[in-house]
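Encode chain A's predicted structure.
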Amino acid sequence: MTKIETGTEVMLGRREGRVAVLTFNRPEARNALHPDTYAALEHLLPTLAEDADVGAVMLTGAGGAFCAGGDVKGMNARNSGKAPLPTSLESAVDNLRARQRSVSAALHNFPKVTVAAIDGAAAGAGLSIALACDLRVGSPQAIFTTAFARVGFSGDFGGSWFLTQLVGAAKARELYLTADRFNAEQALSLQVVNEILDDADFESAAVAYTARFAEGPLVAQRYIKENLNRALTADLLTCLDGEAVAMSRCRSTDDHKEAVAAFVEKRTPTFNGR
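Encoded structure for chain A:
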C-alpha cells in the first residue's frame, strides 16, 4: 500500500496495487461534504488521470457511510447567522458550478474506470457523486436517497441527469420528489448499483472488484468510456465516426496485440496499459 497525499484530513488516499482508493473521512458527520473535500478532489482527479501507476479509482467512505451529501448542520449554522453566507447569488452560482465540474464532470469524463464502493448512506450530493462514477458496488447495509427535497433543495452535482440515465425519467422523478430511501437490493434492481458485495471485509472486496479494471486494457477502456458518453447525446453517424477513430487507435496498442496473442494461445493476457 502506498499513501496518496490529499492535503486534508477529510479525504484520505492510498494506492493498493494499481487501484487508487479515495476515502471520504468525516465519519462523525457521515462523511458530509466539506470545502476541503472539493479542493482535494479538484487536485487529485487530474493527478491520478496522469499517473501511470494508477489504472482505476475507487471512491468510498470511512466509518460505515459513503457520503451524506451536504452538511445539514453547517447549512443550519449559515441560515441562523452563525456562519457566513455567500456574498451574492452570483458568487454562490459560480462556486457551485466550479465544484460540480471539478467533481461530477471530472469523474464522468475521467479517462480511467471509476468505482463507488458504498457501505451505509449515499445521500443527496453523496449519491450524485456515486452516480457520476462508472460503476457502483454496495454492501448489504447500503442505503440510498436523493434527500434534497427533505431539506428544501432541488439537487446538485448532476444527480438528476445521472439518475435519469440509469433508471428512466419516471422513476427518477419519483425518487427526487419523494426523497424516499431505498436499500441495496432495491438499488440493484434499479441498476443504481452493479453488484452487492456481501463480504465481511467490504472494502477489500471492493478493491478487488476495482482491480479487475485497473489491470485491464486501459487505452481500450478510455475509448469505451468516450464512446458510451458520446452515445448519451450524439446521433448515430457521429457515434459511428467516433467508434472508427477509437478502434483504429486501439489496433496499434500493445494491449490489443497481447490480447489477440493470448486468445490464440489460450492463456490469460497480461496488459501494460499501452
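Residues 218-265 form a domain with the Lyase 2-enoyl-coa Hydratase; Chain  A, domain 2 fold (CATH 1.10.12.10).
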